[in-house]
Amino acid sequence: MGGNAGDRYAAYTKLKIDYPAERVLRITFNRPETYNSVDAETHTQMTDIWRDIDRDPDINAVIVTGAGKAFSAGGDFSLIEHMTGNHEELMKTWKEAKDLVYNVINCNKPIISAINGPAAGAGLVVGILADISIAGKSAKLVDGHPRLGVAAGDVAAIIWPLLCGMAKAKYYLLTCKPVSGEEAERIGLVSMCVEDDKLQETALDIATDLANGAQSAIRWTKYSLNNWLRQAGPIFDTSTALEMLGFMGEDVREGVKSHREKRKPQFRKDCPI
User: Fold this and answer.
1) Is 121 exposed, middle or buried (0-12, 13-18, 19+ CB in 10 A)?
2) What InterPro entries does the record point to (predicted)?
């Protein structure tokens, strides 16, 4: 890789960038001490990097994975607490949440996720929106929005029903129960599940094959298939807007407090809608 290629990603200080094979870029969520939780700066960088990858003439495939024992634990509590009740911050986060999903969908390069351990929240967006998603057997995928006290926004409504069907999507999204790597493969939530010690090797083999394939054919196939996701845009926009509305309410405060205190939340039983 030339010097300019490296400089292209110099601003992405919260993400580890390397090149494990020719024309393959690897992004590693790199806060292992917090199970790769996502703070505000990381969320912005995760959103923006796909545009640079799209324009990068030296890259043909992308791998996304996590450092240490987790893929990504999702948004950290400092980010969530800063958003709660903060109209200005919620507008910014809503735009970023939409841009993250659409930037991954619109990125012309095929994306392979290597999901090692827990994957939630913003990290899970990239994990299951990836064109080829590979889970290790120790992977644990969970969309915990309602457990936090907000609607399942982010990537849930745009792709879960398409991948695993409405019945499974509703079950896991309403109950916030985790999905193991093997179960995720069984229900179609991920492309495949492999032994943990084969995860990175498998992702690199697939990325290398794609990097050496017919690029116009691969990129146009991705573009065409992702029209299934683009046509679900209004569904996605609604879910993410309602998630943001939830951050103006009481339940999210109890959701965060109960997470911090490691207890079951005590949400109010009545609701006007």
Assistant:
1) buried
2) ClpP/crotonase-like_dom_sf (IPR029045), Enoyl-CoA_hyd/isom_CS (IPR018376), Enoyl-CoA_hydra/iso (IPR001753), Enoyl-CoA_hydra_C (IPR014748)
**At CA 188, angle to CA 222 and CA 224, rounded to 5?**
15
Strands 61-66 and 111-115: parallel
pTM of the model: 0.94
User: Tens of pLDDT along 106-152?
Assistant: 999 999 999 999 999 888 999 999 999 999 999 999 999 999 999 99
Rounded Cα distance between 36 and 63, Å, is: 16
- CB 179, CB 111: distance < 8 Å: no
Count of H-run helices and E-run strands, the chain = 14, 11
- Residues 115, 139 contacting (CB under 8 angstroms): yes
For residue 121, give the nearest of 167, 66, 194 by alpha carbon. Answer: 66
> Would you tell me how many other CB atoms lie within 10 Å of the CB of residue 91?
11
